[in-house]
Specification:
It is found in: Cytoplasm. The protein has one domain (about 25-175): Beta Barrel (OB fold (Dihydrolipoamide Acetyltransferase, E2P)), CATH 2.40.50.180. The chain has four helices and eleven strands. The chain has helices spanning about 1-15, 80-85, 155-160, 165-175, and strands spanning about 25-35, 35-40, 45-50, 65-70, 75-80, 95-100, 105-110, 115-120, 125, 140-145, 150-155. The strands form two sheets. A six-stranded mixed beta sheet has the order 8-1-2-11-10-9, with no helix packed on it. It has a five-stranded mixed beta sheet with strand order 3-6-7-5-4. β10 (about 140-145) and β11 (about 150-155) form a beta hairpin. The relative contact order is 0.20.
Amino acid sequence: MLEPTSSKTENQSQPVPSGAAQVESSEFLAFTLGSEEYGIDILKVQEIRGYESVTRIVNAPDFIKGVINLRGIIVPIVDMRIRFNLGTPTYDQFTVVIILNINNRVTGIVVDSVSDVTTLSPQQIKPAPEMGSILSTDYLIGLGTLDDRMLILVDIDKLMTSSEMGLVDHIVAGA
């Protein structure tokens, strides 16, 4: 039993091949807003639900649609189309709510539709270009490229911990 411990120590002193730690791929849930396709880290997704009516909160910004009661938890619902100024949202049979669990805080985001889970290697993720006022690059991981398809990869942690999302917490706490 002592021998494996000593060989473990020997292995630690050997150089690790460059790039060996970066070969892990990441999985993203792909969804659409308008004509664009976005992706968020699948590990942040708790569940996907059909869109249902919400309880509106007085004095909440337009992008906060309201709250729902999800198995005893009050969950704020943010409409991403309104949040990103992507035109007037329409709610149909494809509209879904992605329930996220970020830092033990449950929030729902309304998107036009969800397509699939996509695996991207680090080589398939390119830095995000400056996108002006539509979407701050502060909230972007980059652009995921797959053959003829491109995903705008959203850093949902940064987006949901921004000052605007802190407002969501304040409104829900007062509800």
